[in-house]
Structure formats: C-alpha cells, structure tokens
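Incident log, structure service

09:12 report received: a user says their structure output differs between two submissions of the same chain.
09:20 pulled the input from the user's history:
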Amino acid sequence: MNSYPPELLVQLAPVMFVAGLDPQPPASAPPTTPSTPQTPRQDPFQILSLRLRDALVAQRKVAIWQPEKSKTFQVVLVDKDVPFPPRRINRPEEPQYNSAHSPLSPLTPTSPLYPDGIIAPIWVRKHTTLVPSVFVMFMRIYESPPLQTGQDEREREAEEKRRDTDLSAEIAQRKKSTNERGLKLTVVLMASRRMLDDPTLDGRLTYIRRQSGLDPRAALFVLSPVSQTEIGDFVRSLQDALWEPALEYYTNHSKRVRRKRNRHSQAASYQLPLSPMASAGIVRPLRPEGWTVRYEYKMACFAEFRSEDQVALKHYQDAYSTLIIMFGSTAILPPRTKRWAEAKVLADCINVKIVKLYLYNNEHSLALSHQNSHMRKFADFSRGWGIGEETFEFWSWLARQHRVFAELLEQGTRSNLKIPSAYPTPTPSAAILAAQSLEASQMGLDAMRILGLNPNQALQHPGFYYYMAARCTERRRERFMSMLDSEGDGQQANSPGFVNEKKVDHLAIVLELYTRSYELFKKWSPQSAQNPGRLTLWIAYRIAQTYYESGKFDMAVRFFERIAKTYRRESWESLLHPLLSQWYACAQQLGDVDLSVKLLVEMLGYGENASADDPDALQDDLLAVLQSTVPSATDEPLVVDLSDSKSILDASVVFWDSETNVGEHAPFQILLSSQSNVSLSSIPFTSLAVHFSVDVPPVIIKHAQSDPDEEIPLVQRFDLGQIQVTPGAIDSTESEMSLRWGPGTTLVFSGSVLSAIPMQLSVSKLVFTIKQSSWWIEVPVIPAVSSLEHALTAPRWLCSVDPPRFVPIRREDHSAVHIHYRSHQVQVAISHEGPAYIGEEFPIEINITNADDRELDVVLDVLLQPTEIDEAVNYIAMDDQRSTSLLKAIACGVLKPGASILKRLHLTNTGAPGERVVDISVQSHATARIPVSPKSPTSPVSPGGPSLVDKTETLRTLAVAVVQPVEAAHAVVYRRLTKLLPGLLDLAMFEGSVRDEAAAVEAVVTSTVTVVAPAGLVIDSVVLHRKDTEGAEVVDCSVDGDDFGGGTEWLAGDEFSDQCRINVIPDEEHPEKPIPGPGEYEVTWRRLLPAGGHGPRSTTRLSLPPLLPPSDGLVALLDAPTTARLHSPIALRLTIRNRHPTRSAAATVQLEPDGAAGKDAFVVAGPRNARVPVLLPGQDVCVVWNLIPIECGPVRVPRVRVLDRRSNEGDEVEVVDTRWEARPERVEDEDGREVVVTTTRDAYVLVVP
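09:34 re-ran on a clean worker, output below:
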C-alpha cells in the first residue's frame, strides 16, 4: 500500500489534541559531597505527566485496518498555544472574508487544487493532525505552601485568587480559539492529594470555570498523582465524556458540507474570482461532477470519523460512481494529465475503503465483487486511454491492485477477519440431497449450476492475491523488455514513465511477492494427505525460475532440489521436464559437471516431453558433456539414482509361472523399451548387470560392437540360457549382446532359472554401466511392479519376433516366482457313525496314508471351532491330550511309502444341539536331509521368505451334527392343602426362619421322556436326584420303584412317564418369581451300534421344570370322603380361606340339599344358612356337617354355596373339591395381571350297603 498516500487509506477516528504533558526539564539539584550522598527525588507530577502521555497515545494507533468500534480517540500531543490552520484565505477583519474560500479549495488561486482539482491528501491530513474534534489541556492549579507562623491568611487567599485569575485568563485565551473552530475544550487541573482535601477547592474551581467561560459539562476535571491502573480508568472515563462532543463536531461538519452540496447541485454555473494568475490564460474550472465527488468524499470521511460505517460506505459509493462517470469522458478528465492521475489514485483509494468496509461487515462476496469490478472497469478505461495489455503501465497498475488487496486481507486476518472456507461440509447435506432431487426431476444443467461455486466469486486467502500480483509483475517486465528492445522510438524512450521504469528492479519485486505468497500458502494450506500442497510447490517453482532469471543460480538450485522430490514422487512429468531443463541450465552456469550429467540422464527418461523432431538432442548433449569434461572423482563410479524418478528405459520382468518346484526350470523375460521420442543408440552402454533378489552373483551382459549405421529393429530377443541360482556362488554368468536402443525399440532378454532350494526369486535391479573417456557412470533401474487394477496395459510375454507378437500376462505376481518343494502325497480319510449325541464321547476315526515315494514324518493338529450355541462346552481328546479348542502336534510317526496309520478322535458335546466344526491339519515332513547352502553375512534371509523345510500341510474340515439322545416334556398342576392356617397371633410366625406352610400347595409334575436318538438307546437306569429347597420339596416319585435293568433297547420314538408330587411354598414377597425345580432326572444310557453292540455308558440329566403356582384370594375348600356306608354318618368339611394380602372377607354359607327324584340322599346335621366371622387376610374358618347316607350308589353331596358379602349383591366364591383339584400354572394377560381360572364340579360319594 506504499504506492498510495497513507492519508487516503488509514482508518479515520476522532482526533483529540492533548496539551500540557510535555516532559519538564529536571530541576537543578544542589551539589552533594561524597560524605552526604543524596538520591534525587522525582517530581510526582512529572511521573503523572509521563504516564498520561503513554496511556493516551497507546489508546489508538494509526492503521489501515481497525474494525473496532470502541470509544477511543486518535491522540495528538501538542503545545498549549498550538495554532489552527485558517478556515479561509482572508482574515476575519478583511471585507472579503465572507466571500473567501478555504486555502485548499479549488476556487482559491493559491490552492494546490486550483482550478480543477478534486481532493488532496493534505485535506485529510488537516483533519487528522492539524484540527482536532476536542482539545484537552492539562494544567497545574496553584497550591499555597502550608501556613507559617506569623503569615496572614488573607495574603494567602489573595495570592491564590491572583494565580487563579491568571490561569482563567490562559484558559479563556485557548477557549476563544477553540470556539472559533467549534471545538470542545476540556481542562484537567493536576493537584496534589492534599489539595483535594482543601475545603476551598470547590470555590476555586467554580471561580476558574466562570472566569474562563468553560462549559458546565465535561469541561473541567481534577486529577492527582495516582497509580497506573487508576490512570487507565481516568483515560477511559475522559474519552467517554468527550465522545459525544466529538461526534457532534463531525456531525456539524457533515451538515455544512451537505448544505454546500445541495447549493452546488442547484446552481447552474460557478463564478470564479478574477486573479492575475487566471487572467493570463483560460482556466478550466472544476465541473459539477468533480464537486459532487469532493463533497461526497468529505461526508464519507466525516461519517468514518463518527464510526458510522454504513453511512460512510454509502457516500464512498456515491463518490466512486461519480468518478466512474468522469473517467468515462476524456473531455472531463483528459488521459495522462496531472488531474487524471490524481483522480485515478483517488478512485483506487476509494475502492480500498469500500472493500474494507464490506469486510468489516463480513460481506466477503460483496467486497470481492467490488474489487473485481474496479479492476475490470479501469482495465476497459485503460484500453481506451491507450494503456492496454500491451503496455507495462497496465500490468503495473493491475499488480498494484492485487497487492493492495492482498495486504488489506493480510492485515485483516491478523486482527479478526475470517476467510470463509470454500470446501463443502463433510456430512451429506442439503447440497447432495438437492442434487439428487434435481437429477430426478430432470431440471437440466442450468439448475445444477446453482449448486456450484465460481472460484472468481470466492474470497481467497492473501497468498493467492500476492501470487496474482507477482504474475502481473512478470507480465509488466515482459512488456518493458519488449519496449526496451525496440527503444529506437525516441518519443517513447524519453517518456517519464519509461525512464522511471528503467529504475525498477522487476525481479526483486517478483521475488518479494512470490516469497510472501509462498509463506501465506504454507500457513493457510498446510500440507496433508487431503491437501498435498501442489500449488505451494508451483509457487516455489516460480521463485526458482525468478532466481534463475536474476542470475542467482545457487538459490535456484536449492529450490529445484526441494521441488523435484515431490514432483518425482507424484510423477508430475509435464512439470518435471521443464524444471530439469532449467536445473540443468543452472548447473551449467555453476560449472557442476556431475550434476549436469545426472540431470541429463534423468531427462532421458522424460523424453516424451522433448521435441519429436530431434530425438537425438538429449543424447548428443550428454555425449558432448562426457567428451569435453572430466568428473570430480575418477576412481569410483558416478551413480545416477533414478529410484524416485522415471527410468531411461521402461523395464519389466515377467515369469511365465507364478510358482515352480525345486529342480524345475522357471522361464522369464526382461523387457527393456526406450521412449518414442528419444534415441539411445549413441550412448556408450558397456554392460548391463541383472541382480536377483537372493544372494547370487549378477548376470553380466556386455555390449557387443555392431555397425553404428545399421538400423535397429523395433523388437530384438536375446537368449540368456539357463541360470543356476545357487546362493553363495562366486562366479557370475557373462554374455555379449548389442546394447543399443533406437526411438521406441525394445530389447527382450529371455532365459530360465533353476534352484535346488526353495526361495522367492525376482529381479531386484538392472544396473547399466556407461563409460566414455574418464567418465564411469552407473545407472540402476528398478523393474516396474504394477498392479493390474491400476495398470493401463497388462505385462507382456514375447512369443514371436517377426512379426512381433506379445501375449498379455494377467497375473498380479508376474514379476516373481515362488520356488518350493514338491507337495507330499498324503491321503486323509475320516469316518464316524453320526450324528453325535449330547453327553457322549463320540468317536471319529482318522486314517492317514502315505501315497508318496518318500518317507514322511506325520504330525496331526486338531482344532475345534468355537460355537455360538449358548452353554455349550465341548471337548476333543486324542491319545493323552484333551482340550476345548486345540490338540497340538500329535505324533503319528514316520510313514514309509504306502504305509498308513489310524487315529481316533473323541468329541464330547454338552449344551444345546447343533453343528460342531472340527479342522484337521496333517503336517508331513520329509525325513531325507536337505542340503544347506551358505549364506552371505551381509544378506540375511528375510523372515518372510520361503521356508527351507520340506513340509506339506493337508487340511480337512469336518462338520458333525449333534442331537439330544432323549427329551423330556413336563405337565404341572397344583392342588391346595386343607391344613388350617395358624392364628394371626401365633408367635412362631414372627420368627424369620419359619415359613407359612399353610400357604403351601402341592404340585403334581408328570414327566414324559422320549427317545430321539436315530439309532436307538439302551437305558440302564433313570434316577431322580432331589435338590430340595425352602420353596419346593419332593414328596414322592413313581420312578423310584421302576427297574430299567436287563438291557432293554429303546428305539426312536419310545417313551415312558413319571409322576412326582412336590410341596411348594410360594414366596410371599415375590409371588410372580418362578421357583427352581427341586431335582433332576439322571438317565444312564448306551448307544446302539450298527453291528449290534453297545457303546460306552453315557449320562443325560433332565431337570424338573420351574414352578409357578397361581395365587389365591377368597376360596372355599370342600373335603368329603370318597366312600360311605349306608346309614353311617360321615363328615363334610368346608374350609373358607382368605388368602388376599390386604382385604378382609365377610362370607355366608348356604347348604342346598339334592332335591332330585323328590327326596334327599342324605340326612344333614348342621347349619343350612350361616354367616361366618369376618376373615382378616391370612385367616380361615372351618364349617362341618354330619351326613347320614340313606341311598346306595354314587350319590351327589348336597351343594354348598359361599357368597362374599363385601358387595351389595354378593360375589359367589369358588367351591373347590380337594379330591379332584388340578390348577394350571400362573398365567398373566397383556397388562401383566394374573388370569384366574375357575372350574366348578359337583362332589359325589359312593355309598355302599
């Protein structure tokens, strides 16, 4: 931004003049003697003045980028009697004062703008350094010394009043000058702390204010020496108090300028004053458009003083648009004149102001749009002015615009400006969804464009615009150099612009801009996997080119070395070839012959980018260097490492087979092809060394001399014969062949390799040796190993030379061959009698046979795969090993050819049925001794290489189905017991170990055991193992008396039943919780074998089901005998039990005799209708009748009806015959409530005579 006046670019802020803080010279101290040293004591008011100066000046620095809107002034330290510049050219007492104009007005003949200037930087400088908005004056108030003895108080007061009068007069004089300019004057009186406590201080301050004419508000302050923190608070409060007067001052200026603009717009013409200077010739007054620009610019500046950015932006835009109108007419602003140049500078500065205000408001797109529009408009103007793209002035101006914009962005980013990111959000958002919807609706490409981003409309970081400035400066230099070559035109050569351009160091400017751009690109675009920083490298490449053009070849070489590393690694051939060419030119200028040779050899590999008209150009340059120079070292070869770069020849190695056996030949071909635009026929290749990946001597191919004029065929094939690959050998294989390549020719070296030991064999590198004069050069070439997924063409195998015909090799591992021992012929047979049963040791026979012609040492591994079946614990066992997963290294001994061995594996399964998977690995080792080859100590064998052990592994996988041998189904019913409940006051019920046995029920479990084994079983025994708990206890079981001995065979589908009674006591706190079964059946069985025998004895355990008895409420239990004798009394007992946990019961009992056939079958003794006492929760009551049967046969007992009278109508209570009760388990509905199942049947008694 140094190209423009700083007054037109800086951020404007209210100006405050501060006077009275000048440092005072130190007072002369009396001389001291060495015997009485004194430390000078500094004046506290001088310290206060220095601290105030620092605090005020530090409030705001003059800068271009200051977006903060804090109430801070731009402080200027002045003298107390500093004069203000005159407002008009005449003095107020002169009669022409009212019609006079400002000294800077275009209407004033002595003005630098006379007669048609628009605005000058000095006008801004006047309002920033010469005229303030407020004036603050620091002064000392007089303080009388302490009253001495004999001193009169009236004399002291008179002295203070005299001093205050003088102080008031000085303030009034300053007040007069500030009033003339409409400025706010504020006085700060500095006093000691003692003075602040003086009761006369208020009266003295009032007197000073009245005498000096100070305003009653924010015009007089008193300050005493305070600390640095308190000074900061005082400065902030002072600025806050004076902020409104300052804004008012600039507002008044804006109103005055607006009135002038309005009067000017209404006036038809302007009458210029006559002057001797004007009468000498015709003057061109400032046109109305110029006055509009002047007034709009002034109002924009005053709005900027007031921190009203939007108002300032509007006035700057109006001034800029009017300037564009003026530039559009050469009659208003003739090109290449002084006023034209001033207006052009003013337009550029206003553009910077507008862009800056847009950026303050984070309107990045508007800022960039205005910047681009400004450059585009003035580029069009420049073409009309004769300053188009063919002139250096055009590119100089364009570079300046880019640089100013970059510097503005750089200053903004150092503060609070955030450059928006143009990268899309990682989450699939509305853009992707909108793109999909637009594609689905076929709205076309025009609608799709709204989803993209135009790079010209995206604000970049400052480094990009520094780069653009550097590119424009390069164009500027090109145009200047072209004009310098055609300097014969005298008029052009003597122009001031051309003379000044000769003094410009263009390359230094380009280097400065590129360097700054390079630094910012590294800062804003750090190199990563997603952003490799290629543009940063391109800028570094431009820096290297600039160093080359400026003659700093050593610096250019440093940049070329760093850039070439990345270009080589990422294979940027189109960029690397010109880089190598300039690098080679630098090496020539520096006289580095070794580097020149290396670069020429590397450039041979990038011959595709060379000229197709002269394929011998590169090799001729290399031969010229080899014949005319001497290397730096002659006793050792110059190695040209092309590992990261492109090789001089395209080398590929193809093996016909991917693997072969020891002692068998493995054919291979080495294809070496030259570039289509480069000839290597004259390069003196003396030999080619083929190095293998193992420690063996290389194969040397020496060059055989041939006729240099003989035409080189497109494809040649040479036979290398059979190569014995023996590690540790000393002698190498040598042969002679022609090592010449023309443009686009191919040499194919074919042969075969033979090895006595296993290995992974490939060609590691090819080393070309070039010898010419005293030069000895070695060029290692790494054969290309390409993946079929990324290769454009598959590797080729030459089948025919005339005509050339290749066969593609579509195999990933084409560049290596795996040599291994011949696989052993081992047969593995597996047999078993499936399926396996849960709980048995299932035998699996493994028969291993040696079908090879060698003795084999066989080892067996067995792996039981884990299963996803819950609670399944499986075991495998063989010999003396047992494991849940792996049996390792089970020795099977040495098997001679034709011998076999049988191994038995036992599989034990538990848990649920399913499939078990067993992996069997048979590993065979040859017993014959393997020849051991010596190894070089410098080439250790890779741990990942092929094994030297003659070993073969045979794998088998077995899936065994596992089923249950027997299955059990259980049916459970529940019966209530008629035992009376204990009383509520029974103390034994309050003991913790006593359970409420009256709440017990009897569960009858009927278990049906079914044989599901397909082959059948022999059941030896079935035993119920009791596991009684507090909640459940087995009473009896029918299986206890059964005898399963005798070896009875049970086939699939056979079944037997067992019934057991269990006494169950539900949990009172958790009645819904199931009670575990109090036992399990143990079934001992044996498998039926196909031959008629029996397998080993196995055991299956079947647990009793969990018990969940239903809950009870109010119930009536009827207990009647099964048989009775005629005319003998029997007892009919009814127990009413309240098992509800919280509700009491009020029940009534009714006995209804059987009236069928017109007579009763019993004579009843007892109540027919009765009301039982209220039953509390947990209580019961028993009602007994005596019945005398008077009829024989099955007779129905009189019906008993029980009603619960808690409701109005009464609820009938279920009457249960305890002899036939069978309730199901607890059942809940969808809402989690228990479903009550009721069954009602009549009770019968068999009466016998």
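09:41 both user submissions now match this output. Likely a transient worker issue. Closing.
09:42 reviewer note: The CA atoms of residues 180 and 926 lie 118 Å apart. The mean pLDDT is 85.
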